[in-house]
Recover the amino acids of this structure.
């Protein structure tokens, strides 16, 4: 049985945005790169944060084959189980952005830890 091997590279990602993110690039023996990142959006972030996050996504995906994003985005109006029920201009734009980039969420909890019905 053949196993995939990977090399953990410690390269600084050359993404020129101003969001809080820690990234690790995984380089696989197949020459494919996956970026794993953890992002933070402060609860009091202004409208510019979403613009910066869009740039971060575009630049990161241009340099990598795959991307895994984890984080605390502090969007209280997002209904993770039913995104179409999301309220708030920024929240709706964020969920649409996730859809545009074919990103899936793996949580169904609100930022207060309560399960949605």
């Amino acid at each position: 049985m053949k196993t995939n091997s990977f090399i953990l590279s410690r390269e600084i990602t050359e993404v020129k945005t101003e969001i809080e993110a820690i990234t690790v690039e995984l380089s696989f023996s197949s020459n494919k790169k996956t970026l794993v990142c953890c992002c933070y959006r402060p609860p009091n972030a202004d409208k510019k944060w979403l613009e910066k996050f869009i740039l971060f996504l575009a630049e990161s995906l241009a340099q990598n084959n795959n991307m895994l994003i984890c984080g605390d985005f502090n969007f209280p109006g997002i209904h993770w189980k039913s995104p179409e029920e999301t309220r708030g201009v920024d929240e709706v734009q964020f969920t649409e952005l996730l859809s545009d980039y074919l990103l899936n969420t793996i949580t169904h909890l609100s930022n207060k830890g309560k399960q949605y019905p």
The chain has two helices and four strands.
